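Morning!

This is the sequence you dropped in the shared folder:
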Amino acid sequence: MATRLTASAPVFAALGDPQRILLVSRLCQNGPMSVARLTEGTGITRQAVTKHLRVLEGAGLARSEKSGRETIWALDQRPLDKAREHLDSISRQWDAAIERLRAFVE
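The structure's back. Tokens below.
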């Protein structure tokens, strides 16, 4: 369990930045997008967006593909799903611990 949870650490680290959360959200809502489209309305430079996308890519959350002169970025949902599974497992463990404490106190 701990090894599997540790494997999700890069995902949690990548999602620890508000700008990256914004990019993940936009990719999730709109599907694959170019850096130019991802930059629109964010107040973030293209260079900064690209840097954040590289961090997401390193965590396995995003992947890029060349389309002519543009690079199109897409979200990979699988690492998010695995991270959610780990959080759900931790939540169940806490619920069980709280229930044991409640039973002990009563």
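Headline: The domain at 2-105 is CATH 1.10.10.10 (Arc Repressor Mutant, subunit A).

More detail when I'm at my desk.
O.
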